[in-house]
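Sat 14:20. Reprocessing the chain from the morning session after the first attempt stalled halfway. Input below, unchanged.
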Amino acid sequence: MADLGAARKPSVGTLTRADLADIVHREIGLSRAESAGIVEGILHHMCAALADGQNVKISGFGSFILRDKGERIGRNPKTGVEVPIAPRRVLTFRASQIMRERIARTS
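Finished this time. Tokens:
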């Protein structure tokens, strides 16, 4: 995995698609359009897999895991009225042990 520490730091603290494409452009030397296409292709395949009900695991980074939640009763915090919450599928992210250790070192 390429070290992203050398990449330009986003000014607002968020890494964007454009930032990823720029990193691919600088590290691999592809054109900006090809780099953007690769980033878009990867994200497209990840989204398609998740939409098809598959989990996505990126070794050394983490896993995007789909969970099915059942129907439950919730409460409106303002009024206290009970409201049924419909069953739904949620997406969670679990960072790999390597990623957790890297984050812990930088804090």
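The chain is about 40% helix and 25% strand.
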